[in-house]
Amino acid sequence: MRYERGMRNLTVGVPTETKPDERRVALTPDGVREMESHGVEVIVQAGAGLGAAIPDERYRAAGAEVVDDAEEVWARADLVCKVKEPQDHELGLLREDLTLFTYLHLAAYPEVGRALMEAGTTALAYETVMRPDGSLPLLAPMSEVAGRFAVQAGARFLEAPQGGRGVLLGGAPGVQPGRVVVIGAGNVGWTSAWTAAGMGADVILLDKDLDRLRYIDQIQRGGITTLASNRGTVERCVAEADLVIGAVLVAGGRAPVVVTEAMVESMRPGAVIVDVAIDQGGCVETSRETTHHEPTYVVHDVVHYAVGNMPSAVPATATQALTHATLPYLVAVAVHGATEACRRDPALAHGLNVEGGQVVNPAVAEALGVAVGVPSHAR
Question: Per the residue annotation, which of 279, 304, 345, 350 is the catalytic one?
Answer without folding.
Answer: 279
